[in-house]
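Me: I'm a chemist; would you kindly supply a protein sequence with its structure tokens?

Assistant:
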Amino acid sequence: MKFKALALLLLAMVVGTPASAACTQTFNLGVMGPPALRVFGNDFGATTHFEDCYNFTLNGPADSFGATFEFDFSSLRNIDISSLSLTGGNLTSALTDTSPSSFSFSNLAAGVYQFVVTGDVTGRNGFDWFGQVGYVGAIATAASVAAPVPEPSTYALLAAGLLAVGATVRRRHQS
């Protein structure tokens, strides 16, 4: 009996723990409306794996979209952004985009979100005249537009029209 209780406790701890990235650096983008536009980025002078986290808040339903650009002024190092992901708010799991040059996340509810840029700086360390590699990007939000829902009278008119067509077809088959 104690084993079942311990197993349930462990399961609750694992399931109840929110997923979050192991951020190498964390930045705050503030309130992102909608609408809003923010610029983000980071640069690196040595080889590393990075997961840069950008926290922001949405005040209402929104779609988010943007783009990233990698810059490489170093003759020794290269940068590669492998993915962009979004967690928080109404999301039950992370949304991940593996094409980081442009990205979009739709149907976001009001709440607190974390946008994570993941990648690697490869090559070799050492003195370099120009030295830096990095990325810069922009993230924007726009208000979500809900799809229009037909009024009940529209459905009633549709049903009446279908009944009329059905009656006409039935009358023609009988004659």
Observations:
- The longest strand covers residues 111-123.
